[in-house]
């Protein structure tokens, strides 16, 4: 009998992570939400289980190594493997601030969550991913982390600098490239996805505020993540994509 697909989504209790969790749950994947806010995660899990699907949550601050290890232990005890890891948890603390004015502490904070957090979760989950029939890792990147786009005057966000956020997302792209090479021999696909500019509470946005031009709905933002996670075994490795297709690194 084929293994059930077990999917861990960090920051899966709200925003794009929740949209992704709900869609993959409807497809029958077993969802484990790695949550900073366990109250929200509890409500999300209850809705999924009420609909007849298997879901649970673990307390998971990606900057807390003890919690990362406890999440691995939980998955090990309950399933013995992990099929899909979605590194979705992310923050921005320096949106559109001039580079020369961003406190170093803000840069550290962004790297701690966006880069070091996702690397720690990935390294810790690799033994479980190796035990899945067809594993994959999806890293939530951003078009803001593309050096190709950041240096292209035609890129709509060319003049928007957010040094820490953009650099941490570029680092995530390197995380994708590095892990994709190192995990290829184990049949684990590793890819980056750009959800695009989306109407979530990201960066403290109030979703009741008017939508700026070009802002997508959460369904549109989650579509490429869901598409990637729905293909298992995953045919692509070391790609950086969005709804419209491939992006330059
Ligand atoms: N929305 C966009 O326009 C956009 C564009 C490009 C890329 N992205 C990326 O998409 C991902 C999801 O963003 P979103 O729009 O869904 O934003 P969101 O609604 O703010 O969701 C981010 C999630 O990450 C969680 N999180 C923050 N710090 C964490 C930590 N230390 N450990 C575990 N979880 C943590 C948040 O929890 P709390 O809210 O409780 O802090 C929240 O659940 C992020 O990686 C973001 O960079 C978003």
UniProtKB/TrEMBL annotation:
Q: Which GO terms describe its cellular component?
A: cytoplasm
What biological-process terms (Gene Ontology) are attached?
secondary metabolic process
Q: What Gene3D superfamilies is this protein classified in? A: NAD(P)-binding Rossmann-like Domain (3.40.50.720)
**MF GO annotations:** oxidoreductase activity
A Pfam family reported for this protein in Swiss-Prot or TrEMBL: adh_short
Q: Which residue intervals make up region (Disordered)? A: 198-218
- The organism of origin for this protein: Secundilactobacillus folii
State the name under which the record lists this protein. Answer: SDR family NAD(P)-dependent oxidoreductase
Domain of life of the native organism: Bacteria
Q: According to its UniProt record, which protein family does this protein belong to?
A: Belongs to the short-chain dehydrogenases/reductases (SDR) family.
């Amino acid at each position: 009998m084929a293994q059930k697909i077990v999917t861990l989504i960090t920051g899966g209790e709200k925003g794009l992570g929740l949209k992704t969790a709900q869609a993959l749950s409807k497809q029958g994947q077993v969802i484990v939400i790695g949550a900073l806010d366990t109250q929200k995660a509890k409500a999300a899990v209850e809705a999924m289980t009420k609909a007849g699907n298997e879901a649970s949550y673990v307390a998971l601050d990606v900057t807390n190594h003890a919690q990362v290890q406890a999440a691995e232990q939980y998955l090990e005890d309950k399933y013995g493997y992990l099929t899909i890891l979605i590194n979705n948890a992310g923050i921005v603390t320096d949106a559109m601030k001039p580079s020369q004015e961003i406190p170093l502490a803000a840069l550290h904070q962004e790297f701690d969550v966006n880069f070091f957090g996702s690397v720690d979760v990935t390294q810790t989950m690799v033994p479980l991913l190796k035990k899945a029939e067809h594993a994959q890792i999806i890293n939530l990147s951003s078009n803001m982390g593309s050096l190709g786009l950041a240096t292209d005057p035609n890129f709509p966000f060319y003049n928007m600098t957010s040094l820490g956020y953009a650099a941490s997302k570029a680092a995530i792209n390197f995380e994708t490239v590095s892990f994709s090479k190192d995990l290829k021999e184990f049949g684990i696909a590793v890819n980056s996805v750009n959800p695009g500019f989306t109407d979530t509470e990201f960066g403290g946005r109030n979703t009741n505020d008017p939508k700026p031009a070009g802002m997508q709905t959460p369904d549109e933002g989650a579509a490429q993540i869901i598409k990637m996670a729905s293909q298992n075994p995953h045919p692509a490795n070391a790609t950086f994509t969005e709804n419209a297709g491939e992006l330059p690194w």
